[in-house]
Amino acid sequence: MLEEHVLGKTDATFTLYFSTGSSTVLMRYQNLIRYGRPGGTYSMRNMQEIARVLADKLEALSRFDIIGREDQLLPTVTLRLAGEQNYDEFDIAWQLLAERGWMVRACTLPPDTRDVTIMRALARARMSRAYVASLVRTIEDACATLARMGEPATMGVGPGH
């Protein structure tokens, strides 16, 4: 049994880290049959481009380090806070979800690196550049709010609190 730390709480899991049900695999298979390899390739390249745009915009904020950018094959952006702040990645995830309705996961890494906290954003097929810009503005606003608060907003629910 493993523990995963997501959105400021710890859950026991008997699955692979961040694994999900089989419905998404079945959906991907159905899309492959419907659109063929060219359609699947187009969709994946589009999601990778959206992830690249999101990473660029987040990096431009100078608040985050983008992790594994040059090796990224999946349409995700993995990031962590750059420098010391009076808040952490769990606080940002909490602020985004509880106060603003966005779900950007925060988690700690596996047991040997449990002290490293990251955030992960997933690019979806129907995300537009305007949607990405809105998410980045929301993250910037959440960070500004947390900086003004002067103490963690999650009130001790993350693993580092």
Protein described:
The structure is a single chain. α1 (23-60) crosses α3 and α2 (89-100) crosses α3 (129-149). The strands form two sheets. This protein has a four-stranded antiparallel beta sheet. A two-stranded antiparallel ribbon has the order 1-2. β1 and β2 form a beta hairpin. It has helices spanning 23-60, 89-100, 129-149; strands at 2-6, 9-13, 64-67, 76-81, 105-108, 117-122. The two termini are 23 Å apart. By secondary structure, it is of the alpha+beta class.
Cα(first) to Cα(last) distance is 23 Å
Proportion in helices: 40-55%
Mean pLDDT: 83
Order of strands across the widest beta sheet? 3-4-6-5
What's the total count of β strands?
Answer: 6
Quaternary organization: single chain
- The helix/strand series, from N terminus to C terminus, equals EEHEEHEEH
Would you tell me the structural class of the helices and strands?
Answer: alpha+beta
Low-confidence stretches: none
Broad shape: globular
Strand content: 15-25%
Largest sheet: 4 strands, antiparallel
**Helical element count?**
3
* Rg, alpha carbons: 17 Å
List the helices and strands and how they pair.
Layout: E1 2-6, E2 9-13, H1 23-60, E3 64-67, E4 76-81, H2 89-100, E5 105-108, E6 117-122, H3 129-149
Antiparallel strand pairs: 1-2, 3-4, 4-6, 5-6
Characteristic terms for this protein:
161 residues, 44% helix, globular, alpha+beta, 4-stranded antiparallel β-sheet, 19% strand, single chain, two-stranded antiparallel ribbon
